[in-house]
Amino acid sequence: MKSETTTPTGEFTLRLSATRRGARLARLLAVQQLHEWGVTGPAAEAAELVVAELASNAALHGRVPGRDFEVRMGLDDDHVRIELSDTRGERRPLRVENPDEGGYGLLLVAALATTWGVKDRSVGKTVWATVPLACQNRVSRPGPRLL
Questions:
Q1: Which of 71, 81, 89, 138 is positioned for an S-S bond with 14, CB 3.0–4.6 A?
Q2: In terms of Cα–Cα distance, which of 34, 56, 51 is closest to 128?
Q3: Cβ atoms of residues 96 and 103 within 8 Å
């Protein structure tokens, strides 16, 4: 397992096992890093929820036995970019307007982030979201749902 990496440029990378425990640690360590960057209040809470949901999805839907998932965060002047990468590229989120069972977590991500999406990797995929530092309650278009 790779330990966390922090740099003065506002970047954070963490690799954890694709388990519920790994997802929980991703959230806790992301919160710690946000506080070290001075991100607090509603922006930190929104980023924490986004990390928690994406890490949970990586551990649940993106899990390949023996493979880790990776959390990356980048701090910019007006937002935090959050990326979660896993090794299950075939399990991509799909956009749904009205989820039937499950899928509500990604609606939360869509509501908290200014934008979010999925990009391919050589192995797997990365689900990313941009959370503004000046958070407001907003309703966005629903994002994809993991199948």
A1: 71
A2: 51
A3: yes
Nearest residue to 113 (alpha-carbon basis) of 42, 70, 34, 50: 50
Q: How many CA atoms lie within 13 A of 39 on its CB side?
A: 28
Instruction: Please tell me whether the overall predicted TM-score, pTM, comes out greater than 0.85 for this model.
Output: no
Residue listed under structure tokens 């990468």: 85
Structure tokens at 70: 């990776």
Q: How many Cα atoms occupy the beta-carbon half-sphere of 12 within 13 Å?
A: 23
Exposure letters 14-30 (e unless 16+ CB within 10 A, then b): bbbbbeeebbebbbebb
Using one digit for the tens of pLDDT, what is the confidence trace for 18-31?
999 999 999 999 99
